[in-house]
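Input structure tokens:
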């Protein structure tokens, strides 16, 4: 009887495997899609090119300019962008210009700076400089505190062009000065896609009192907005992204996706994407801190004989990295926590690395930083997103992405050039011992990590940052 039951169980598992595969593909096949002309899809490969394209499109705008980012910094690049917007609005007053940034992030300075140095104060100063021109800058609070969720929605919509990147607006993201933060930059001309993104922010942000203008002398406190923020978050977690779909599964399409909270649509798309892989899946993330479900999906692919490539920022290329000759603080421990994750991951799966199934690349270019996110599946599917594919993105932040389906491989030349450009500054890791062991970390770092591990705070930090 025991053997009979085991046979039935194994038979059920065997019978269910094709059904599970079909479900993943079925979900992607049934996802509403928007037709896309290959000639109207352009990938840029350098941050300076992104800055030029962004400003060039702004200068040419005839109807609307919407900038959506985590933050618009009060540095040279941020001032250049905002000054340009005011000048363009003065020339063409009919332009619909709106800016959306995270409410919390805008009201504090950089780490170590006071609130008087905040971006919000700069926005108000600009509004005073141009008193007859109205360019609203909205702060969107995704949760009561910044650590519990931020506006990680990305995209600039200028007329019918969507410029999608994980970058925010400041000197390093736009490579305005010497340093840069490397990201992805996709320029997509598509009216239906642009309309869908405009409609999303207008319909799901502006009607809610939690969304406040930041270019004002006074701002409500977090306590005053607490009930409004709760209403907004609940709405965002339960609303569907509505858009007019006209695409099919036989031609080039794009599909905008938004999600916040556990089991949101974007998380599900990532899960389904990984599980339809027949040959190779490539992932980019700056922080190696994968959610458990993604970790299991990757291991499942490897066990099926698929190839998986991970392109990760070296700890020196992490935006939290603090050089040893500079004052250390707790945030400087994060790159080392991520590196410990990576070393343990490679050690556990070393046999897949040895077989060439698991490819690990670390990106570094001097003291430049790395901010790439995204997934490439079988030369057919492409996800551009600001999602870091980590527990924070999976549960806390409002994230979005654009899923590209390219069944005829019309974009593959550009896509392969993008990947080749990313790989140029990477080191191939063939053994876990190439990753520095924690006992050789700087004394302050080693002491911090040991203390955090002892009281298990490191687990909480990995969920929040």
């Amino acid at each position: 009887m025991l053997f009979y039951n085991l046979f039935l169980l194994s038979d059920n598992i065997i019978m269910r495997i094709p059904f599970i595969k079909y479900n993943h593909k079925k979900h992607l096949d049934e996802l509403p899609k928007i037709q896309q002309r290959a000639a109207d899809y352009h990938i840029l490969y350098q941050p300076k090119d992104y800055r030029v394209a962004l400003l060039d499109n702004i200068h040419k705008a005839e109807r609307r300019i919407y900038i959506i980012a985590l933050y618009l910094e009060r540095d040279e690049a941020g001032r250049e962008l905002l000054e340009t917007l005011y000048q363009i609005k003065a020339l063409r007053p009919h332009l619909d210009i709106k800016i959306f940034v995270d409410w919390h992030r805008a009201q504090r300075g950089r780490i170590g700076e006071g609130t008087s140095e905040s971006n919000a104060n700069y926005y108000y100063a600009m509004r005073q400089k141009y008193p007859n021109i109205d360019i609203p800058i909205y702060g969107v609070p995704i949760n009561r505190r910044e650590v519990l969720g931020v506006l990680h929605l990305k995209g600039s919509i200028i007329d019918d062009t969507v410029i999608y990147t994980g970058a925010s607006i400041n000197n390093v993201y736009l490579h305005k000065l010497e340093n840069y933060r490397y990201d992805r930059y996709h320029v997509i001309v598509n009216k239906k896609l642009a309309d869908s993104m405009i409609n999303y922010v207008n319909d799901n942000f502006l009607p809610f009192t939690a969304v406040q203008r930041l270019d004002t002398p006074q701002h409500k406190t977090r306590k005053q907005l607490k009930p409004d923020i709760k209403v907004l978050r609940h709405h965002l977690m339960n609303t569907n992204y509505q858009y007019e779909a006209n695409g099919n599964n036989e031609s080039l399409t794009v599909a905008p996706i938004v999600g916040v909270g556990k089991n949101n649509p974007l998380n599900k798309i990532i899960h389904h994407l990984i599980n339809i892989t027949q040959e190779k899946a490539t992932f980019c993330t700056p922080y190696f801190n994968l959610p458990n479900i993604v970790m299991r999906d990757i291991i499942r692919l490897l066990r099926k004989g698929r190839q998986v490539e991970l392109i990760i920022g070296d700890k020196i290329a992490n935006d939290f990295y603090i050089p040893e000759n500079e004052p250390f603080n707790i945030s400087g421990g994060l790159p080392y926590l991520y590196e410990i994750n990576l070393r343990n991951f490679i050690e556990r799966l070393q046999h897949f690395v040895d077989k060439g199934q698991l490819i690990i690349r670390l990106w570094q270019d001097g003291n430049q930083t790395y901010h790439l996110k995204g997934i490439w599946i079988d030369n057919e599917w492409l996800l551009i997103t600001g999602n870091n594919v980590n527990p924070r993105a999976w549960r806390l932040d409002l994230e979005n992405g654009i899923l590209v389906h390219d069944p005829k491989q019309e974009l593959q030349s550009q896509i392969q050039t993008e990947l080749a450009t990313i790989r140029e500054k990477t080191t191939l890791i063939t053994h876990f011992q190439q990753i520095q062991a924690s006992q050789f970390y700087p004394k302050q770092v080693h002491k911090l990590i040991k203390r955090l591990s002892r009281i298990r705070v490191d687990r909480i930090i990995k969920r929040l940052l």
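Residues 1-20 have pLDDT under 50 and may be disordered. The longest strand covers residues 398-405.
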